[in-house]
Amino acid sequence: MFGNTVALALLSLVLADDPSPYVPTNVTCPYNASFTRNADSLSRSESRWIKSRDQVTRPLLIDWLNHSNMSDFDASSFLSNQTIKIGLAYSGGGYRAMLAGAGQLAALDNRTAGSNQTGHLGGLLQATTYLAGLSGGNWLVGSVVMNNFSSVEALQHDKNLWNLDHSLIDPGGFNLFSDADYWDTIVTDAQDKQDAGFNISLTDLWGRGLGYQLFNASEGGQNLSYVAIRDYDVFKSHQMPFPIHVTDQRQIGQTIIDTNSTNFEFNPFELGSWDPSVHSFTDLKYIGSQVSDGDPDSNQCVVGYDNAGYMVGTSATLFNQFILQLNSTGIGGWAYDIIEDILQDHGNDGDDVALYSNNPFQDESYVTQNDEELLTLVDGGEDGQNIPFQPLIQPERGVDVILAFDNSADTGDSWPNGASLISSYERQFGDQSNNTIFPYVPDNNTFVYGGLTEQPTFFGCNRTNLTSLFSDSLPESERYYPPLVVYIANSYHSYSSNQGTFKLSYDEDELGGMIENGYETTTQNNGTIDSEWRACLGCAIILREQQRRGEEPTSQCQKCFDHYCWDGSIVSDTSNGPSRRDGKNNTVSNQAHSTAVAAEKTLRSSDAAVPWRKSWSSIHHNSRTSVLSAIRI
């Protein structure tokens, strides 16, 4: 089954005495500890942090607006006693989303070469309050923040990071699965974690692999906990946005959609959900501890469960589906045998679920679904909400405007078609909405054939029109109007950035092309498509505060809104849509959820999707005591 060299290497790992630094450890619990709280407000830690961040962002935003060529507007006077909260949301979509998103982020960063020139947008990142990512967008956010809030340029040119020439999975070059040393480290990390009494899954392997590509840390972040960010100087001095990472809860074998899913988030302080089914948060540092109703069961608590790679990998468990389809990956030899052995021990269910044991919300008084021993989390876009809106539309955070970067593969040729916004819009009418409001959006045809994916589009411009989304019984004083959404979809400018979600390798030219195209998507070709674009973005940023004050927009801003705001019209004739910049015909799915995503999310229980599963019972494994056979649900 395995070559002699690999077998000996694995045996040496089994005989090793010292557990891997990846393994969570026991510590004495804090005095009078209670880790879980009701989600009726922000945590005190986040509230204090944001209050200090506001003092940083206000002068930076004033400066950015003052350099935006906005007519008849005095930023210093307007923001003299007020802070505007900006949220950035980066969608899922594998390395396509990570790299296109990297360019989109770089366009807002004043550290990017040329970003402060006329027509560019540098400095807006520094004035941003929240930075949210999901799945592939989460890899971007995680890599930026865990590398001391590095710039995209710095990460791109670091020879130890973002080396995507060879797939993480397919053998060759710098590749974890073809290099026995790397693979042995990953496998023994997972084995040691289980030996310590914790459940493990494919996400342990996937997350550890991602760590080598995303983090400039020893052994790919083997001992890098996510909460370590609390001690970063750049975080303690509030010189970066507050990062939020989105994932979904799904029980093994369950199907989730936008209206019934439980959206989880984790940030430097907490893990939890605003949704009614959980409506609780727990201290991220101590996840894995045995608790009842939020209180430790003993004086021994667990730390280190929040490995940065595992946390980032949790928000992208869709990629476990790639591993499950071994026959189509080109993997062969001992690497194929290793992964097949892992899947043999998994069985047919739960392969794409990240397991958190012990469930910090078990027996929690605030939680309606509180009897599960394991907390099972999956890719944050599995419910169709492929842009991380939910954390940013919570009234408690008071976000004024969201720049939503959509790098989804919704159409037949892997461009966005607005499906993510439609899912988030529909969610507010389900039981999990928690009275959050999302602006009106059109159907998929209108997104594509109306040209809404070819240029930035604003949703929720007319606040008065949003009143019909509120319950009639809710008084005006208690109504929280959602942030204005500035929707920026992946589109062609200088590079064909519609790469497949399961494309796992990018050479240097491809990587650079993806990032450059993302930059140009955000800046509208560096202001050459619309020289007023930066001013119009400034108008969008200040709109909610103007509306709260009862102020009318300037004539310049009104022209911007006439051009960029969705006016409520629906496109029914799809025979004459606007031409795309790549010169190809428009293609669009007529369903709210894309055909491309549906194809990628193959049913885990389908023998047709994973044909070699049928023969599992007839496969004879001679090494059932292998270190690899330990990886089970």
Automatic annotation (TrEMBL):
Residues 1-16 form the signal peptide. InterPro entries: Acyl_Trfase/lysoPLipase (IPR016035), LysoPLipase_cat_dom (IPR002642). GO terms for biological process: glycerophospholipid catabolic process. It comes from the Eukaryota. SUPFAM superfamilies: FabD/lysophospholipase-like. GO terms for molecular function: phosphatidylcholine lysophospholipase activity; phospholipase A2 activity. Gene3D superfamilies: Cytosolic phospholipase A2 catalytic domain. Keywords: Glycoprotein, Hydrolase, Lipid degradation, Lipid metabolism, Signal. It catalyses: a 1-acyl-sn-glycero-3-phosphocholine + H2O = sn-glycerol 3-phosphocholine + a fatty acid + H(+). Residues 28-571 form the PLA2c domain. The keyword Signal applies. One of its GO terms (cellular component) is cytosol. It holds the Pfam family PLA2_B. Its EC number is 3.1.1.5. Belongs to the lysophospholipase family. This is Lysophospholipase. The lineage of its organism: Eukaryota, Fungi, Dikarya, Ascomycota, Saccharomycotina.
